[in-house]
Known about the structure:
The protein is 41% helix and 18% strand. It has helices spanning 3-21, 40-48, 59-68, 85-88, 101-110, 139-146, 167-188, 203-208, 218-221; strands spanning 30-34, 53-56, 73-76, 94-98, 117-123, 152-159, 194-196, 213-216.
Amino acid sequence: MSELSDRYYSVCHTIDEACKNASRNRSEVTLVAVSKLHPIESIKEIAACGQKDFGENYIQEALKKIEEMPDLNWHVIGPIQSKKTKEIINKFDIIHTLASDSLLAELAKRIPENTTQKVLLQINLAREEQKSGLLIEDIPPFMEKALQVKQIDIAGLMCMPPFDIPAETTRAYFAQMRKLKEKMETYYGINLPHLSMGMSHDFEDAIKEGATIIRVGTDIFGVRENQ
Ligand SMILES: *Cc1c(COP(=O)(O)O)cnc(C)c1O
């Protein structure tokens, strides 16, 4: 077995164990393999192991890969400039990073009436200035607008906690996300099936706190070259 598929199976095993420890059904957690800046050959190799969901940050790079492997499930997990919206319509299973009025308006304009696009709202719980995502107080006005866009299916929330904080602080952020999701479900009377949270260094804690989608790059593909 190659080093790459070795690492992939090891991540799968860790997910199995984390689900067991959290008394969660393994089918409740989807692994998105984050393949940004990695070549299509690596994606093909992991896909051959049975992996279906892949995450990309950069639209141009993603579109090329989607063209080569159209039958996989593709996720946008990076910020999207609203001028790129036209190019992403009907290409991705889930857009994880809806967080701006301008992107919302573009989606409303560009998605054909008879189709829907699954989206997650990116939340900036830690109020980090350099990161995108809605601040808590931005959520009500944003939801008011988003709920009126028939072509988007608001399927849950996504977050990326600060990187250099103690594990228990990260875990507290994850727990806060779960509570926020439950509050929003009650308040808006909608079902938000997904919580997209947890990366290579913290996905086990995310699973403990209710993540339904984890986004793992480095632990599967190794360190990214261009970083
Ligand atoms: C790159 C990226 C990941 C994957 O991070 P790793 O630490 O490599 O697992 C997950 N989520 C987002 C939003 C990313 O940009």
